[in-house]
Write a structure and sequence with these properties.
Layout (H helix, E strand, L loop, with lengths): L1 E4 L9 H9 L2 H25 L27 E6 L3 E6 L2 H12 L1 E6 H8 L10 H9 L3 E3 L6 E3 L2 H7 L2 H12 L6 E6 L9 H16 L2
Antiparallel strand pairs: 1-3, 2-3, 4-7, 5-6
Helix pairs in contact: 2-8, 5-6, 5-7
Protein name: Phage virion morphogenesis protein
Organism: Shewanella halifaxensis (strain HAW-EB4)
């Protein structure tokens, strides 16, 4: 995902500003567009910090009970690229990060599968202690533990499960409690959270300011 600005009458500059920009040497034009790119990057980072989109509306909420901010990692790695003194592209240096940014910018449905999860996270260590997430899921599904006194069972606690089960045991228990096999493929809906972009009016205004400053040097 990237923000592309090519200064022209339709997108960014008035005719007078175009003529002034064209008259400047390429080195200065690169400087102007690079400065504009850093300005746009600052705006994008501010939106992520405030959790607001390009229209000033709050980002779509994350999963229930999630307190962490959306897109925090996407605030890093944005870099302005200028070519030929007439084209600015603000994008992530890392292609995978750019792809993730595009999903959030526009909203999409990502296809995920067990094989892909293994490629991303590696093969699980089934002998490792159960994760807290697995323990919470088991408790929610009604996992039981033997009573310390007397016969029968009672509702298990997260602390007990974390201390007594492995990842492999938890997976089998979850499969049994859910009474179905784990999905091999599934879809992850990603809501649009547009943090990258700007209005023509604001680009014109900021470019005019930058051009004046550069010409005064």
């Amino acid at each position: 995902m990237s923000l592309v600005i090519t200064p022209n009458k339709k997108q960014a500059l008035s005719l007078k500003q175009q003529l002034l920009l064209i008259s400047l040497p390429e080195k200065k034009r690169n400087l102007i567009l690079g400065t504009l790119g850093r300005y746009e990057r600052k705006l994008a980072r501010e939106r992520i910090r405030k959790q607001e989109d390009i229209d000033g509306k709050s980002f779509a909420p994350r999963k229930k009970n999630s307190e962490s901010k959306s897109l925090k990692r996407l605030a890093k790695g944005l870099k302005p690229y200028v070519t030929g003194g007439n084209r600015l592209e603000l994008k992530h240096k890392n292609k995978l990060t750019g792809r993730i940014a595009a999903f959030h910018q526009e909203g999409a449905t990502e296809k995920m599968g067990a094989a892909r999860m293994k490629r991303i996270h590696g093969k699980p260590d089934y002998d490792a202690p159960i994760t807290r997430g697995q323990a919470k899921a088991l408790v929610k599904l009604g996992a039981k533990a033997r009573k310390s006194k007397g016969k029968g069972y009672r509702k298990a606690t997260i602390k007990e499960l974390v201390a007594s089960m492995t990842v492999g045991q938890a997976e089998m228990a979850l499969e049994a409690l859910r009474n179905k096999k784990p999905k091999q493929n599934w879809s992850i809906p990603v809501k649009a959270r547009s943090f990258l972009g700007d209005s023509t009016e604001n680009v014109q205004r900021q470019l005019a300011i930058i051009i004046d400053k550069v010409n005064q040097r």
